[in-house]
């Protein structure tokens, strides 16, 4: 006989998924302020600690922005960023160490090929985007610029497979 393990979702995962779903369905709109942690905890029937952790996770992944003393707001989501988040969420059973290992390996090769093949215009553009990342004032603009930076480096490799892999 063969059985598969039933995945038990944590309270945190359920809260995160509910908020993501509300954002994706347009119920929570970009720029909209979320209810307070206390109100969300009451609405969801969970502890404030669970709500706080979910908000941290959603802030880190670019769905929300917490402004000290003002509240938590829904960010405008880049479609590409959302696709990336969905893609990598399928690897939740794998260690973050594996992801970082793969990223370091791939990014190093992308950078090496771009350094060898990029035109001066492409190098200037990469530098410009890097400076824009450095001066990003919120998480959403940082994420969008960071993605643009990596896509530009991939294109500068002049290798259609590398460019396609990044897209």
From TrEMBL:
SMART domains: HTH_GNTR (SM00345). GO terms for molecular function: DNA binding; DNA-binding transcription factor activity. The keyword DNA-binding applies. InterPro entries: GntR_C, TF_FadR/GntR_C, Tscrpt_reg_HTH_GntR, WH-like_DNA-bd_sf, WH_DNA-bd_sf. Residues 9-77 form the HTH gntR-type domain. Coiled coil: none annotated. Keywords: DNA-binding, Transcription, Transcription regulation. PROSITE patterns: HTH_GNTR (PS50949). This is HTH gntR-type domain-containing protein. It comes from marine sediment metagenome.
């Amino acid at each position: 006989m063969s059985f598969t393990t039933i995945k038990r979702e944590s309270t945190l995962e359920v809260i995160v998924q509910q908020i993501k779903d509300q954002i994706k369905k347009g119920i929570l709109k970009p720029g909209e302020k979320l209810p307070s942690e206390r109100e969300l905890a009451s609405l969801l029937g969970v502890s404030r600690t669970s709500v706080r952790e979910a908000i941290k996770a959603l802030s880190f992944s670019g769905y929300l922005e917490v402004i000290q003393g003002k509240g938590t707001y829904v960010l405008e989501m880049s479609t590409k960023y959302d696709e990336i988040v969905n893609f990598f969420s399928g690897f939740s059973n794998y260690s973050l160490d594996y992801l970082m290992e793969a990223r370091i390996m791939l990014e190093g090769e992308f950078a090496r090929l771009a350094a060898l093949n990029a035109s001066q215009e492409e190098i200037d553009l990469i530098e410009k985007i890097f400076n824009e990342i450095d001066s990003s004032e919120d998480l959403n603009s940082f994420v969008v610029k960071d993605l643009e930076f990596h896509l530009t480096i991939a294109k500068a490799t002049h290798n259609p497979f590398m460019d396609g892999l990044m897209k």
